[in-house]
Amino acid sequence: MQTAKVNLLGLDRQGLEAFFTDMGEKAFRASQVLKWIHQFGVDDFEQMSNMSKALRIKLAEIAEIKAPEVVLDQASADGTHKWVLRLDSGNCIETVFIPVEDRGTLCVSSQVGCALECSFCSTAQQGFNRNLTAAEIIGQLRAAYQYFGVTHRNERIITNVVLMGMGEPLLNFDNVIAAMNLMTDDDAYGLSKRRVTLSTSGVVPAMDRLCDASDVSLAVSLHAPNDELRNELVPLNKKYPISELMAACLRYANAGNRKRKITFEYVMLDGVNDSPEHARQLVKLLKGVPCKVNLIPFNPFPESKYKRSSQKVITRFWDILMAAGVTTVTRRTRGDDIDAACGQLVGKVMDKTKRQERKIIQHGGAA
Which of 206, 260, 284, 359 could cross-link 170 (Cys pair, CB 3.0–4.6 Å)? Predict the structure, then answer.
């Protein structure tokens, strides 16, 4: 029986060094291969000219460089770009590039669908199939570089990466860490750790593991200033309530000498979480936490029960936070004409949770 080839695309420096030492090769081969794969976009070992012919032949026998296939790319009128990448068994994921003045942010997925069921997110309504491999995560960044025809040593079109696409990154911990290691490795993509952001709904034990494994920037999907409301919007809150979440945020912000600010994401839902009282509760909750707040106008999707807060209401909310000394930014909606805005990513998910079936039964029963 033929052994499956090792996909080198998803191996970070540590993984590649182990791979080569197991072969009886020197660990420095890892640096060479990292550059060929991620800086030069090479997927044919024969082109790796600074390695011996014998080694290239051996690599071709036992390894491969295999990335997800881009099956659709869409450009928004505002310059936002969305790619759909095909995986296996009919599964697809989505990746979004958002250019803003001197910054280009790539929004990367970490799961096929999402295992959580946040009520305001379109991705969550699609159910969940599986975690992405490290190769499938970093493959999204590689695909974007190839689309733009640049490497990280050239004109830096992609300046930031956020794991805010489909899925909860901390429920795919090891693969996400390996992919972020590649993003920040100087022999791969060379991004500053401050320019790689992991967004979580608040998986508290994994947030503490992240303290030890990485020091990338952290964003937390908060969306409510009290447990009662957050239980409704972010059901994970029933397991890890706000008091535990805020304590974990402080631990992350103050770990070592990093002194990082936590970004709190707050989607603005009309008549749900956008009142002046909610703003005052949020001010009280964030007291003493080094942070900034991103207010996100809700992006509608089919069958959603929510509506976007008016600009007047969002501005009033912003005013209350800023007056209390909380740094607050209202995120500009980008890519909504191609369903690439925050909360709109759906891909194509072969749902293993039966979430869609339950919804159909519930709608049928209601009828």
Answer: 206
With a cut of 60, say whether residue 340 has pLDDT above it.
Answer: no
In a domain, 109, yes or no: yes
pLDDT in tens, 62-97: 999 999 999 988 888 888 899 999 997 778 899 999
Full DSSP string of 218-270: EEEE---SSHHHHHHH-GGGGTS-HHHHHHHHHHHHHSTT--PPEEEEEEEBT
- CA gap 57, 45 in Å, rounded: 8
Among residues 17, 94, 136, 265, the one annotated as catalytic is 94
Query: Phi, psi at residue 219, to the nearest 5°?
Result: -120, 140
Asked if 179 and 169 count as a contact pair (C-beta separation under 8 A), the reply is no
| Residue 345, domain member (yes or no) | yes
- Check: CB of residue 249 under 8 Å from CB of residue 288: no
Query: Which domain, by its residues, includes 134?
Result: 69-359
Q: Are residues 36 and 85 in the same domain?
A: no
Residue 238 sits in the same domain as residue 268: yes
> Out of 114, 118, 249, 342, which one is annotated catalytic?
342
Number of domains in the chain: 2
- Can you name the residues that pair with 73 across neighbouring β-strands? 83
Where does the pLDDT of residue 336 fall: very low under 50, low under 70, confident under 90, or very high at 90 and above? low
Residues 55 and 87 in one domain: no
335 dihedral zone (left: phi>0; alpha: psi -120 to 50; beta):
left
Is residue 243, in this structure, part of any structural domain at all? Answer: yes
Q: Do 83 and 10 fall into the same domain?
A: no
In degrees and rounded to multiples of 5, residue 324 shows phi and psi of: -90, 5
Active site residue 94: yes
Say what the pTM is.
Answer: 0.88
Q: Are residues 191 and 114 in the same domain?
A: yes
- The verdict on whether 342 is a catalytic residue reads yes
CATH number of the CATH domain containing 60: 1.10.150.530
Contact 162, 108 (CB under 8 A): yes
Tell me if 20 is assigned to some domain.
Answer: yes
pLDDT digits (tens, 9 = 90+) for 28-44: 999 999 999 999 999 99
For the ranges 120-134, 216-230, 266-280, which has the lowest average pLDDT? Answer: 120-134
